[in-house]
Amino acid sequence: MPSERKRVWSLARQIPGNLIPVLLSFPLLGLSVQEIVRFGVTPKGVLLGIAFFVVGWVGVNFLGLFGNRGLRHAIEMRFKDEYEYDQSERFFAGFSRPGKYGLLDPHEDLGFLVFRDEELEFFGEVHHVSLPYSAITRVGKRANIHSLLGLGGWVAVDAEVGGKLVRLQVEPRVKSTHWGNARLRKEWIRKITEKIVR
Asked: I want to staple 93 with a disulfide (CB 3.0 to 4.6 A). Which of 27, 114, 128, 170 is the partner?
């Protein structure tokens, strides 16, 4: 009996992408608060506060996907084990069920959004969801924590399957920055919409 694989998208893999931006930006917040407490609202205190937000945003954008390439490779090996000769178009993505999220990240699971001939599939490390294009009723954008920073959000695919309303929420993780991935959402919506209206 084969041994069970260790989880790729583990807490240990989520920590660096969240911790590094915090370590870079929070000292600036501390200095800003210290300056304002000691001397009142000064230009230095305000500039340090602004620097906290700027450094935090830049850190999340460029370092928030720390280790993304290795994660993609590990999950791609699992995909190839399952679908050895599959040449379907697929894109690396984060996934969460509505109302669910990871402890440190909005992505509960990582995997591939697969564009098949008759259905849209999310093949994840834990979750596996398939939606026939004929069942999809709506596709659009929805906010998540990345949206608060202008760095992304969900592509939400609503469908009716077996008389039940379901939603697939995915976010691109194709590029090395959040900003680059946020710009892919419109393309994914267009591609799914084209499949629906064939």
From this structure: 170
Q: Is the pLDDT of residue 1 over 60?
A: no
Per DSSP, the residues of 61-127 read HHHTTTTHHHHHHHHHHHHHHHSTT---EEEEEEEE-TT---SSSS-SEEEEEEE-SSEEEEEESS-
Per DSSP, the three-state class of 4 is: coil
CA distance 69 to 173: 9
| pLDDT tens string 133-144 | 999 999 999 999
List the beta bridge partners of residue 164. 161
pLDDT band for 41, please (50, 70, 90 cuts).
very high
Between CA 166 and CA 132 the distance in angstroms is: 12
Q: Which two tokens stand for residue 78?
A: 């699992």
Please check whether residue 32 is in contact with residue 49, taking contact to mean a CB–CB distance below 8 angstroms. yes
* Tokens encoding 91: 């894109």
Strand intervals (E) in 17-62 = none
Q: In angstroms, rounded to a whole number, what is the distance separating the alpha carbons of residues 166 and 97?
A: 9
93 Cβ partners below 8 Å, 6+ apart? Answer: 110, 111, 112, 113, 122, 170, 171, 172, 173, 174
